[in-house]
Amino acid sequence: MAWNRILILLAGVLLSGSAIATDGIESEAERLARLAALGDQNGLRLMLDSGVSPMLQEPRHGATALHNAAAQGHLKLVQLLLERGASLASEDHTGATPLIYAAYQGRTAIIELLLKHGAAVDHLPAAGPTAMTAACLRGHEAIVRLLLQAGAAPELADANGLTPRAAAELGARAGIIALIVQAERESAQ
Amino acid sequence: MTRLQVCKKIVLSCLLAWATPGLWAQSILPLPEAVAMAASALPQDPRSAYHAWDEAEAEAARIAEAWTQEPASLAWTRVQLARIIKHKTMPTRAARGLALVHVAMHDAYALAVREQLSPTGRRLALSMAAADVLGYLYPAEERAFERIVFALAARIEGATVETLADATRLAMAHGRSVSELVIARAEGDGAQRGWNGSRLQYYAQNRYYGPGSWEPTPPYFYYPPDEPFAPGWKTWALQSGSEFRPTPPAFASPVYLEALDEVIRINAEIAAIAPLAGAMGATDKLVQGSAADRLRIAKFWVDGHGSVTPPGHWNQIAIDEAVRAGLEEQATLRLFAQLDMALADAFIACWDAKYHWWTVRPVTVAKSLRNITMKPAVLTPPFPSYPSGHATFSGAAAEIISQAIPDRRAALEAMAEEAAASRLYGGIHFAFDNDDGLKLGRKVANAVIERFGNAAQH
Fold first, then answer.
1. What is the pTM of this model?
2. Domain boundary residue among A87, A112, A130?
3. What is the rounded average pLDDT of the residues B100-125?
4. Cα A160 from Cα A179, distance rounded (Å)
5. Residues B350, B433: contact at Cβ < 8 Å?
6. CB–CB of A38 and B204 under 8 A?
């Protein structure tokens, strides 16, 4: 079994161009997270097939492969990781989930997929933005709309005390502010 | 000054140095146990049909002239600074190289003292050590530095390269025995990782993609970022690059947003006067004022591509300070070895933090959060923001030089503060990048002093 795993990893090194430069010491967790960010579906699948857990967190930031694949918009990789048991609730060192990474980076299709699989829309990290404040900060209007449709609380402040509306006002995002005002009105009724 | 006068002055200064009592044999790296190397370890004649010998002689003449007026090592510092400009060395590589050359000179001198070489022999030993390490750092120079040392030796001895005395060749061989150890350390310091001979092979190891993460910056959107493997380089005094790792404010926290607004405001004020300043010169009375002063400061400390770079800039400052203070040979060697080890470690510590936190640059976050297009007064460097490299270098350098020349502390700290602030004025750093960079640099400097002693004590 161990030999099988070594052979599969070796095949991954040979087949995956992104692996060639790994001339330092890279742990399985770091490698899994890196391949996910790069969109290396083949390399990632080989690692998962060899028994590497999709739940591994790279030590520096605590990101899982799902965080990075979601952030970089690799839809097929996100699907693969979810099939293999990756957790939507996994948190990096700031408490951010894959949904927050995707919201910050503006990955609309990923957000739809994660919400469909039951991602917690109002997760509140210990530091940094929520999915809503992340999307509002960056002006991702389509994502704000999706999050509100999924039941995101329009007035929920993040750990910095920033509300979605205040986040949107930083960049004078009129469209997003209008969405939030409407959602606030509806939630008040 | 004629050649004869120069030779006389060198001999006189050497005799004066020899008369100075006390041995000085404390080295940074372990010295060779026994100096059994023969003078035959050196080439009999370094000249070739492919290289201009007169260039070596001209450089040797400049060095010999400098030796009549200041400590011997400073001439080699200048040779290295000129090569940093010529080869467009990156600041990170410049810091590493400066440390290697100055440790080599320091230790070659220590060896020469231990072996009781004459003052001229000590100078030739440190020269050969510097030349060998420079040759290692700049292979495209095709051993130009070795030729300079031979020309220098011939000039001082009043001989030709073929007729150099055995004692002269032995002194140079002492330098080579030290440079071999320094180069061996360099070969194992981790700086080769990722380079395949022509380009960096970096495939996003340890990159962060969450909120507040770095993105390539305008106008060139250059990728990969500079020196992503530097956090793992071997340090001189620190236990590791992460020993003093600082922590930035949380992304989009009130402190963060306040700092962002400060960069945006200063950038807008400078942008408003920049065209006028460009047309009339920033010193013109019409464009004077705080914004013009800030633009001038940003440009003065820019130390960008093709300059001596920030570590080189602080070596220039140290040269001025050492000459002004009248430091002797040994104190100068100790000061520059400490300064450049501190700069090299400061760089590693700074890059450790940069590639731990991967924070976004002001120009990116101003657009993505505030919807404001900034036009920084200087080019945003292609790597993460926190902390500022220039601030870290400056904090370290000012502290080291101040400890060697205490009466200059206030002026040096003011320079460091200004160098750090220049990155805010240039629109490429937040104030907290600079503040924490300065603090980090000072900690690194104190670690170097703690390990290697105060230059003023020697």
1. 0.90
2. A87
3. 96
4. 22
5. no
6. yes
Contact B24, B134 (CB under 8 A): no
Is the Cα torsion angle B133, B138, B142, B148 positive or negative in sign?
Answer: negative
User: pLDDT tens digits, residue range B299-313?
Assistant: 999 999 899 999 999
Contact B211 A20 (CB under 8 A): no
The predicted pLDDT at position B197 comes to 74
Provide the number of structural domains found in chain A. Answer: 2
Please name the member of B203, B210, B369 whose beta carbon is closest to the beta carbon of A71.
B210
**Assigned token pair, A62:** 């605590």
Q: Cβ–Cβ of A137/B370 closer than 8 Å?
A: no
Distance CA A103, CA B358 (A): 18
pLDDT tens digits for range B174-203: 999 999 999 999 999 999 998 887 788 899
Check CB contact of B368 with chain A, cutoff 8 Å: yes
The tens digit of pLDDT for each residue in A92-135 reads 999 999 999 999 999 999 999 999 999 999 999 999 999 999 99
Q: Domains in chain B, start-ordered, CATH in brackets?
A: 3-22+49-187 (1.20.144), 230-457 (1.10.606.20)
Q: Are A24 and A83 within one domain?
A: yes
Question: Which residues 6+ apart lie within 8 Å of B255 measured at CB?
Answer: B249, B432
Question: Is A42 touching B (CB cutoff 8 A)?
Answer: no
The verdict on a CB contact (< 8 Å) between B209 and A72 is yes
Q: Which of B189, B195, B205, B245 should one mutate to test binding to chain A, selecting the residue with the greatest count of A CBs within 10 A?
A: B205
Q: What is the ipTM of this complex?
A: 0.88
CA atoms lying within 13 Å on the CB side of residue B456: 12
Domain that holds residue A25: 1-87
For the domain that residue A33 is a member of, what is the CATH number? Answer: 1.25.40.20
Q: Considering chain B, what is the average pLDDT of its residues? A: 90
